[in-house]
Structure formats: structure tokens, C-alpha cells
Design a protein that fits this description.
Blueprint lengths: L1 H4 L7 H7 L6 H14 L2 E6 L2 E6 L10 H30 L6
Antiparallel strand pairs: 1-2
Protein name: Homologous-pairing protein 2 winged helix domain-containing protein
GO molecular function: double-stranded DNA binding; recombinase activator activity
Keywords: Coiled coil, DNA recombination, Meiosis, Nucleus
């Protein structure tokens, strides 16, 4: 979220409401965040009168299976080789030595 708001601190409810174009009030934003925290979608931590809402750090719902990971790695290797081949063709073309197939 820090990257989204371009600041070094966690955004406050007012920051989130402002970022939504103020189409959602601060009170409605807070109610939604509290409801999400109660459902376990995000985590809330109370510090005195202030409550901080943060993303869940140990969320395994986006975990990828080993088979899918292996397929992605293989595809990535193939694309790297193809990229290298195309770069070599471009280099030969730029030198005037290219014979296009």
C-alpha cells in the first residue's frame, strides 16, 4: 500500500477515502475495513484509539502448485532462449549480415 500512496507510512482511513475520489465517506471506509478484518480478509491491530489495517502476510490462497511452477520455469527458459536468438538476429541485421528465413 505504501507504493500506492507514495508515502513511507501506512495510509489512514482518510487517505483511502481520498484515494477513492471521496465517493466513499471515511465512516463507510472504516466500516468496510472493520468488516473485512472480521472476515479475516485483512488484519487489524489496535494501538490505543487508533486501529491499523494491514494485508495478511501468511495468505497461501495464491500459492502455486509445484507442477505449475515447473511449467512456468520451463516456459521462462524457452522465452529466454527465444529472446537471445532474436537479439542475435537483430545484431546480425544491424551489421548487414542478416539472411531472413
Amino acid at each position: 500500500m505504501r507504493e500506492l500512496f507514495g508515502c513511507s507510512t501506512e495510509p489512514a482511513i482518510g487517505d483511502i477515502s481520498t484515494n477513492l475520489g471521496q465517493s466513499v465517506s471515511k465512516l463507510a471506509t472504516q466500516k468496510v475495513l472493520v468488516a473485512c478484518a472480521e472476515r479475516g480478509v485483512i488484519t487489524s491491530k489496535a494501538y490505543g484509539k487508533q486501529t491499523v489495517f494491514v494485508a495478511n502476510q501468511n495468505d497461501d490462497t495464491n500459492a502455486i502448485s509445484p507442477e505449475d511452477l515447473a511449467a512456468l520455469v520451463e516456459n521462462n527458459d524457452h522465452l529466454r532462449k527465444e529472446h537471445q536468438s532474436l537479439n542475435e538476429q537483430i545484431a546480425h541485421y544491424n551489421k548487414g549480415k542478416c539472411t531472413w528465413k
